[in-house]
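Q: Hi! First time doing this. I have a protein sequence and I read that you can turn it into a structure. Is that right? Here it is:
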Amino acid sequence: MTHLFYWILFYLDSVFVPGQTNPISASSCFLQGHFEPSFLANGHFMIGGLFPMHYRVEIKLYLILQCWCLFRFDPRAFRWAQAMRFAIEEINKNQNLLPNFTLGYKIYDSCETHVAAQWAVLGVLNGPEETQNAMCFAAAPLLAVIGDSGSSQSVVASNTLQPFRIPMISYFSTCSCLSDRKQYPTFFRVVPSDDFQVKAIAQLLQRFGWKWVGIVTEDDDYGRYALQGLLREFRNIGVCLAYYEMIPKVYDQKRIHEILRVMKQSTAKVVINFAGEGELYPLLKEYMDLNITGIQWIASEAWVTASVLASSYPFMVGTIGFAIRQGKVPGLKNYLLTVNPLRYPNHTMVQELWQHSGYLNTSNLRVTYNVYKAVYAIAHSLHNLINCEPGREPFQNSSCANTTNIYPWEVKFYTFLMLRLILYFLIDSCTPGSRKAVRRGEPLCCFDCVPCDDGKISNQTGVFRYTLSPSPLSRTECIPKAVEFLTHDAMGLTLTVISVVGACLTAAILLVFIRHRNTPIVRVNNSELSFFILLSLILCFLCALLFIGEPTVWSCMLRHTAFSITFSLCISCILSKTLVVLAAFTATRPGNNIMKWLGPKQQRVIIFACTLVQVLICSMWLIAAPPFPFKNTQYSRSKIILECSVGSDWAFWSVLGYIGLLACLCFVLAFLARKLPGNFNEAKYITFSILIFCAVWLAFIPAYVSSPGKFTVAVEIFAILASSFGLLLCLFAPKSYIILLKPQKNTKQHLMGKVIK
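A: Yes, that's right. Below is the predicted 3D structure, encoded as structure tokens:
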């Protein structure tokens, strides 16, 4: 593309008069004034715009009061100006935003210089008369100004507008100096401060391990404040500065060569550059001519996305930097194509503009999107001001503004609120599904966006806290979790069948023993104690059924108490039987009268006393901290586990410990009686049954603790059934075999065979 160079003193884009169908074009230098309506009727509001549609390449002074400059046209900035026009025209067509009101605009070219920006602001403030001294008119009815792009130009413009209390919204000025609300009370922006950028660059250096760097900036507030911020961050991360050079605002080839010589001779191959495209242009041109290579550029947001640099200077490939957030402006590209060359003083410029990718490229809108947001911020502020509700306004006595005579400072209040929302949601925000994590020791506005933890959500933009979510499948919305407990599914039905089979088998054995209660094998083993053991085992099998199904208050209390009491009864009966067996063979010794202390009454007392201790423990448990249904949401993020909380861990393990104590005592006594004479020494079977019982419950403890969800309950049921079957089969299977299949051995002589011999 042919470079667009031409002589120009000052360029004024256009002035749009509300109520007229077409904008009025005007071209003039800043000593000639401009055309605009003599007054604005009610319902018409004017917005000013400052855009650097040209940037200076060389400066030549000729006549006094005339500053002739060689400027290079910037298609990208021209697109920004057109985006402002597009937004205003879009708002004027919107029936929901500022209905019955019309926005007008005055757009000036600030030429990316302090002086031009000063004259542009004064031009925006001009009144209607056209005189030779255009800067001395009465003030025009201006409500706000959008601009400028450069921080130094914005400083000048803001200071000029401040006495008039006219709010100014910048779309690209990032200098941290402009964050001073006392010095710049009417300045606002829709772009983050450089404080964030320098922190990001410092983290970038730290990430790649770059400790030796150079800095090149433009010679103004933008560059100087960026340097201060970088040096502050360097001290925190241990980065050293090799050199610092400033690009002169007025082109000086000798000074440019000095800067490039320092860069070429330095051992620092990483260069951080904070400069606008206009200031950087002569440096990069000489950089290319001198064929300097091996430099890793870190670009500021001012030029990192400038397409003209990437297309004109292929040697800049590899440059990295942080760009501002991009956005979409539907319909803008078609609007850009509607530019009429006849409306502009340089027709050739506009015709070449059609072919320029920097102008028509709307796929990656960043600064353009900021301009679009700034216009809408003013429009919404004005809309809120016009549609105020008495009692809720920020003015004195919570009064509303006079909509027929609105002052710029009144719009400022609303603009401030709107920009806070824009910055909060569109620039420095965390998207739904994440939250803000404030950095320790830093201001509240310094934060990181971290994804919500599993099971937690945030469905709003820019939140510091999140809410609990039933499901980890989504971090932006709550999805109900599945509720899990041991139901009558395949596992539950299997355990139910085993429990019922065990109870029925025990009942069948009980009937067999009752029918053969007068036979020697039943009588010699104390039929009454055998009946008690079988009855307690039936209850043990049936209590397992209480663990299946949805937990309720009553089922939770009955589960553990019924299980513990029935097992205590069973083990107490076995303990009493073991004492009787041991005493019966000991009583055969001369002078031993121990059996008189272990008669039927004493046996019942032993059983009752041992069981009563467990009943008392369970009673205290139910009174102090009874078990209750509990929804466990901590173990699994994908489901809610409905279970019975034991209420008191101490009580739960106490009842298990007491059963274990009875079982251990029974095991010791049975072990002592294992070698007593007789063909049917029951002590051997008691020893083996208690050994199985203890093994099951010792294995239960780690399995119970580590099993998830409904499997915890299944493990407990399995322990109950396994221990019950162990006692039943070890104690009664041999006897039932003799009674039913070997009746010839069911004699006193056979049972005492070894004694007779």
